[in-house]
């Protein structure tokens, strides 16, 4: 959808010196009013096309939610949430990386040795919170897959009405949005802690950088939010216009008054 403002031609520039100022203002008003009306016409056609493409929009939203759910699960299982940094002239013989479940060290030969976190209560608060948020995100994503699949307009199951299917699609979209928010909050919190430790001059431990797992989590959460927003577009089907309580509107009939000609015809 491209809207281009009217261009001022050289002919108009030359003629503007000879035309009266009032005529120029009137002509400009006509030009801009026609341009604004064309803009409204383009927007009206665009929204009509979106309304007719509701089935495709919901299907695209479901696919985006499914891809975001898979990426979120891959991000949770990824080992590289933070990677040890190589800064300065210090030569490091091994590389360290961690995620929410274990810490690993890889030597120059590419052999990694991982150690799981034994005590959950001994972990930092942000690691425990990120674990909980990521698990909640996956549970919400799984529920979204089941509910929104039953609510898609292109899938017919039993005797479900369009309104009930639309409500299921909207519920799945809301669950997907909440799952994406949980994933983004968890990755952002973990990444903030990594950046804080990296720039803290008083921090004496090993310094790390952001790993690929965080970027995967951000991407998966964003896809879930976008897909859930598209699924929520089914709310238009959940409240159809012109129907209240499932009964058609009443028709009111009014008696028309008889004219004198009609009465005379009746007597004749």
From TrEMBL:
The chain crosses the membrane at residues 26-43, 55-77, 132-152, 173-192, 212-234. Its main location: other. The keyword Membrane applies. One of its GO terms (molecular function) is structural molecule activity. GO terms for cellular component: bicellular tight junction; plasma membrane. Keywords: Cell junction, Cell membrane, Membrane, Tight junction, Transmembrane, Transmembrane helix. The keyword Nucleotide-binding does not apply. It is found in: Cell junction, Tight junction; Cell membrane. It is a multi-pass membrane protein. Belongs to the claudin family. PANTHER family: CLAUDIN. This is CLD15.
């Amino acid at each position: 959808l491209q809207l281009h403002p009217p261009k001022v031609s050289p002919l108009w520039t030359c003629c503007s010196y000879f035309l009266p100022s009032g005529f120029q203002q009137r002509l400009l008003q006509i030009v801009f009013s026609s341009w604004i009306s064309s803009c409204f016409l383009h927007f009206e056609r665009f929204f009509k096309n979106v309304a007719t493409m509701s089935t495709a929009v919901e299907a695209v939203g479901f696919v985006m939610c499914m891809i975001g759910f898979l990426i979120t699960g891959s991000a949770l299982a990824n080992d590289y949430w933070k990677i040890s940094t190589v800064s300065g002239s210090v030569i490091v013989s091994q590389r360290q990386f961690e995620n929410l479940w274990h810490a690993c060290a890889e030597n120059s030969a590419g052999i990694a040795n991982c150690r799981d976190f034994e005590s959950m209560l001994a972990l930092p608060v942000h690691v425990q919170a990120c674990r909980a948020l990521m698990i909640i995100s996956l549970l919400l994503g799984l529920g979204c897959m089941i509910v929104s699949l039953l609510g898609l307009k292109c899938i017919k199951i039993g005797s479900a009405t369009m309104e009930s299917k639309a409500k299921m699609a909207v519920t799945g979209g809301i669950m997907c949005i909440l799952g994406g928010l949980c994933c983004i909050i968890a990755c952002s919190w973990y990444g903030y802690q990594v950046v804080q430790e990296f720039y803290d001059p008083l921090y004496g431990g090993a310094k790390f950088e952001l790993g690929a797992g965080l970027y995967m989590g951000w991407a998966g959460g964003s896809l879930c939010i976008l897909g859930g927003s598209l699924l929520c577009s089914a709310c238009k089907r959940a409240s159809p216009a012109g129907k209240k309580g499932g009964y058609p509107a009443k028709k009111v009939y009014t008696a028309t008054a008889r004219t004198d000609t009609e009465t005379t015809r009746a007597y004749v």
